[in-house]
Amino acid sequence: MAQVKEQSGLEERSGLFERLLGWIERVGNKLPDPTTLFVILAFLVILISWICSMAGVSAIHPGTGKELTVTNLLSKEGFRRMWSMAVPNFAGFAPFGMVLVAVIGAGAAEKSGFLAALMQKMLANASRTMVTAVIIFIGINGNLAGDAAFVIMPPLAAVTYLGMGRHPLFGMFTAFAAVAAGFCANVTLGLSDALAYGFTEPAARMIDPTYHQSPAINYYFLIVSCIVLTVVGTFAAEKLVAPRFEGQDLSKYGKATVEALTPEQHRGIKMAGFAFLIACLVLIAMCLGDDPLMGDPAAGGSIMSSKSPFMSGIIVTVSVLLFIPGVTYGFVSGKYRNDKDMFRDVVAAFRDMAPYILLCFFCAQFTNYFGWSNLGVIIAVKGAAALKALNFTGIPLLVGVIFVSCIVNIFIGSASAKWAILAPVFVPMMMLMHFDPAVTQVAYRIGDSITNPLSPLFYYFPLILGFAHRYEPDTGMGTVIANMFPFSLCFSITWIIQLVIWCLLDVPLGPGGGIYLQ
């Protein structure tokens, strides 16, 4: 009887949560098309900039000490700037170029059938839960490949899940949530670690002029995060999101089951593996030596410098490492007979990106208008000041840093831009509370990650919507947000609990990165 009651309670709680997700989906789907949304937001920024400029809204930048005022875009100067900069805004929109470069390699690997065949071979005997765990783990560590993970993982997961007889959107949303919400966690140091620390050290020196550590100050914490978030993400996917896709007809998506690989496909995978290995060896050779080809001469030949060809060209590297095995598989398996067949697939991949390219134009205008107006910077400064005024101490203060970072993340997409504003406020403030800069940095990075998949203003949110339209043309923003919410909620709770445990046990966050100042 007790077991029946327990099961009934579980179903009731699940039902309440499902109703919440249903409400989020219905409300979200009433929002206009993302392109229209960015047009509306751009006009709102123009209007609000005029109102705030007339009202004299301002703030003091914590890093430079300069007064920040709202720039009125509803003026002659504002109009001239917006009109003349429309094309440069579009051409300089960072995600636009990175995504298109990544599509060259990802498109060849996907359209040739290489990724689908590889996943089928690797996961042939794996359980559904294990496949989900693998997808989430790879997605969480996807930031090591830069923004290319946003282009590669969702379509790959969709094909993999469809081949297992599961809904492709379930796989797509699971992969996107892992890449976006787990963005700062990784098993090795990456560019994000170096970028974050680059703002932490100068901020810490405002209190301690001798402060100096390495970008690895959060490394131990983030390694554990990879494992913990993989487990929690798998639970969220299988128990909270998967039931929303069960019982749906998959026949409209093509083959719901994948036939056994042919000898040609097996041979194609093998030769693609050899081609990939050779490409990796060439890349390694380019990274070796006192003055490596992929190194930054100004940094002593370091390949980990943000200005080195290896790090600054990571998108090109990933695209090449996908293109080579993808094309090799296509020719060996018989999919391609000549170069025309090969480039036909790459063009098809670009054709799929047409809606995203259109959206990028308007997204770029909104992003630049928002930056020119100074509204985002002022909101960030005011938010940080509000947290400081609450006079929180101890662990609640750390949680407050996480939540302020979550809110600011909605308005400012760039992680480095946000930390450039918040670090000069949070790091010194927390040091005066005897918190090590490392714990302040990790709290910010948690908040910066968990709301990524929920914000329609996130650079890659429109991309996942475009991918979803391949299978369900009527998919709205509400559908994406509703299926992202369980992941963000579970990741938030888990990360906060992990950080609290770390603080209570006073465990080092990484080499040279403690919880409290000695």
TrEMBL record:
Pfam families in the record: ABG_transport (PF03806)
One Gene Ontology biological process: p-aminobenzoyl-glutamate transmembrane transport
Sequence intervals crossing the membrane: 37-61, 82-109, 129-157, 169-197, 217-237, 271-289, 309-332, 353-372, 392-412, 419-435, 450-468, 480-501
Coiled-coil intervals: none
Domain of life per record: Bacteria
Keywords, alphabetical: Membrane, Transmembrane, Transmembrane helix
GO molecular function: secondary active p-aminobenzoyl-glutamate transmembrane transporter activity
Protein name: Putative AbgT transporter
Species annotation: uncultured delta proteobacterium
